[in-house]
Automatic annotation (TrEMBL):
Recorded name of the encoding gene: ftsY
Function: Involved in targeting and insertion of nascent membrane proteins into the cytoplasmic membrane. Acts as a receptor for the complex formed by the signal recognition particle (SRP) and the ribosome-nascent chain (RNC).
EC number(s) stated in the UniProt entry for this protein: 3.6.5.4
One record GO biological process: SRP-dependent cotranslational protein targeting to membrane
UniProt domain SRP54-type proteins GTP-binding: residue ranges: 266-279
Keywords from the UniProt entry: Cell membrane, Cytoplasm, GTP-binding, Hydrolase, Membrane, Nucleotide-binding, Receptor
UniProt protein name: Signal recognition particle receptor FtsY
Annotated GO CC locations: cytoplasm; plasma membrane
Complex and partners: Part of the signal recognition particle protein translocation system, which is composed of SRP and FtsY.
Length: 293
């Protein structure tokens, strides 16, 4: 996969060099630790991984770095667990999409809409970021391009009211999937969280038996910040799944491992480029295979 080539060159090549014919001693583990931390795996997760490897080396009396390489791969695979793709049910599905401005929220919404429209689903978008006129316009442009309707009010309108209208429109039009864009201005964090909670309340109240999921979009190039952002939004609106964008733009793909280990929220999709097909279901096995090609 081309999208992961930077991580392969920046992170994995260092791992491969380390695992090539040398003694497994303290220095080896210290170097591994450094490589993992530099690749955004995070201190906690790095310590855990390296400690586990030390134990395995002791227990099984491993002398060969080649053997340890396969064990390292297996440990990461174990850590990443099973895939958890986006799922949709019969009837109305609602995706509330949250995230800080600039992470790729709007393009992710467009990519999801495009994919599901091709699968024959009836889709509606709600322009819930009423704070910025540009956000409303951008969603309309995408709606036009993909060929789906957008429910929008004017700039400064109440986000809850937009979502209220969108849900009722979705219900009366027999829509399969309503995707709700939301504001992401972090400089007024408190207000933002209150606004998102309100949007969530409107959805829960009006959606009847719709299948509601909150998706948070985070930018892989922001490293550990991505984890802090999820913690913050999860407290306010309870996040069901993560979309990790811009993995093609970082050499530190270790953030995937940190997210999985530090948060109890699955990565559903990854973005590895700007084109529609660059938003992919996250599959741990494929991910590892692409890295350790
Ligand atoms: P928003 O402010 O969160 O709505 O962000 P946008 O959707 O406007 O995206 C910001 C920029 O990131 C745009 O230029 C997108 O094309 C770009 N972008 C989004 N996802 C990806 C990705 O997976 N890879 C790359 N390279 N760029 C992306």
């Amino acid at each position: 996969k081309e999208g992961l080539s930077k991580t392969r060159k920046g992170f994995i090549d260092k791992v491969e060099t380390l695992f090539t014919g040398r003694a497994i001693d303290d220095e080896f583990f210290e170097e591994l630790e450094e490589i993992l931390i530099q690749a955004d795996v995070g201190v906690k997760t790095t310590m855990k991984l390296v400690d586990d490897l030390r134990d395995i080396v002791d227990e099984r009396r491993i002398k060969d770095t080649g053997e340890l390489r396969s064990i390292f791969k297996e440990e990461i695979e174990k850590l990443l667990g099973e895939p958890s793709p986006l799922e949709f049910k019969e009837g109305l599905n609602i995706l509330m999409v949250v995230g800080v401005n600039g992470v790729g929220k709007t393009t992710t919404i467009a990519k999801i809409a495009d994919r599901l429209k091709r699968e024959g689903k009836k889709i509606l978008l709600a322009a819930g970021d009423t704070f910025r006129a540009a956000a409303i316009d951008q969603l309309k442009v995408w709606g036009n391009r993909v060929g789906v309707d957008v429910i929008a009010h004017s700039e400064g309108a109440d986000a809850g009211a937009v979502v209220f209208d969108a849900i009722h429109a979705a219900q009366s039009r027999g829509v399969d999937l309503l995707i709700v864009d939301t504001a992401g201005r972090l400089h007024t964090q408190k207000n933002l969280m209150e606004e998102l909670k309100k949007v969530r309340r409107v959805i829960d109240k009006e959606a009847n038996d719709a299948y509601v999921q909150v998706l948070q979009v985070v930018d892989a190039t922001t490293g550990q910040n991505a984890i802090n952002q999820v913690k913050l939004f999860n407290e306010a609106v309870k996040v069901d799944g993560i979309v990790l964008t811009k993995l093609d733009g970082t050499a530190k793909g270790g953030i995937v491992i940190a997210i999985k280990d530090e948060l109890d929220i699955p990565i559903k999709l990854i973005g590895v480029g700007e084109k529609a097909e660059d938003l992919q279901d996250f599959n741990p096995k494929d991910f590892i295979a692409a890295l350790f090609a």
